Amino acid sequence: MNRTDLVKKIASRMDVSQAEALRFINVMEEEVSNAVKTDGSLVLVGFGTFSAWKQTERVGRNPKNGVECMIKPRTSVKFKPGKFLLEDLNSHK
């Protein structure tokens, strides 16, 4: 599923226009990003936890020519699925 498919599905399920569904998704993305930036994590009970983590500087390799280069440290995000999401994914219907 891509962004367009998600917008259509949300618009259909919530009985709103696709523009409103897209606005909802954009606001959701902004708020998740802001929460992880400011608080370090966002917990959606039952669904999962988004948490920031620091990647250290490390040596990388150009796959085309094999030349080594340093990859700068950066902040990334991890997602840990919650209990209800895992149960739903693993229920054999």
Provide a descriptive summary of the structure in words.
The protein has helices at about 5-15, 20-40, 85-90; strands at about 40-45, 50-55, 60, 70, 75-80. The chain is of the alpha+beta class and about 90 residues long. The chain folds into two domains: about 1-40; about 40-93, Irregular (HU Protein, Chain A), CATH 4.10.520. Strands 1-2-5 form a three-stranded antiparallel beta sheet. The chain has a two-stranded antiparallel ribbon with strand order 3-4. Helix 1 (about 5-15) packs across helix 2. It is extended. The model has no long low-confidence stretch (mean pLDDT about 95).
CATH architecture of the largest domain: Irregular
Order of helices and strands: HHEEEEEH
CATH homolog superfamily of the largest domain? IHF-like DNA-binding proteins
Kindly identify the CATH topology of the largest domain: HU Protein, Chain A
Looking at the structure, what is the overall shape?
extended
The helix fraction, in percent, is 40-55%
Number of strands: 5
In terms of quaternary structure, what is this? single chain
Query: Which residue ranges are poorly predicted, with pLDDT under 50 across at least 5 consecutive positions?
Result: none
Strand order of the largest sheet: 1-2-5
Going by helix content, strand content and strand pairing, the class is alpha+beta
How many DSSP helices? 3
- Main sheet: strands, sense, barrel: 3 strands, antiparallel
**How far apart are the termini?**
21 Å
* Beta-strand share of residues: 25-35%
